[in-house]
């Protein structure tokens, strides 16, 4: 049985374009692979907190003695790490806000990037400790940004997954969604075709 981890990061929830693209992919995958389990981690509504000093202390090992709040932080991180490790396929719905990834997604990664757990330092540099698996990213942009110097989300997402050991990271973009209805529909149709190709390749 395949297990999908679905990371939803749109502030619009299920109504966000990236969420709808990701959901359509998952629905089609389940139709082709009956019995597929889907674990949903709603990064906006589940409230993955942003780092502060106490939280970073628990995750980064700043202190040998953890208080009760820090123990809870570590336990929450363990759950997120286990969700990732248990997934055969990761699906990420990723809008772009102000040329970057949603801060909710960054907060999720801050909780799973742990030395000795998901990566380790070696004499040759950092080494990822998470086994490779497919990550399919459904990215929505209001304008046309892919390939431009200011568009940092694609490079960032690939880099951080690579850092922990996951190399198979592929994007399906829908761009120009806020330009006009015609441009939007053309972009979504292009994304639909690319989604079908992505499904066939898995």
UniProtKB/TrEMBL annotation:
Binding locations of FMN: 10, 96-99, 140-143
Pfam families: Flavodoxin_2 (PF02525)
Residue span, Flavodoxin-like fold domain: 3-197
UniProt entry keywords in alphabetical sequence: Flavoprotein, FMN, NAD, Oxidoreductase
Gene3D superfamilies, alphabetized: 3.40.50.360
Coiled coil regions, renumbered to chain: none
Keyword Flavoprotein annotated: yes
Cofactor(s) annotated in UniProt: FMN
Quaternary structure annotation from Swiss-Prot or TrEMBL: Homodimer.
Protein name stated in the entry: FMN dependent NADH:quinone oxidoreductase
Species for this entry: Alcanivorax xiamenensis
Gene name per UniProt: azoR
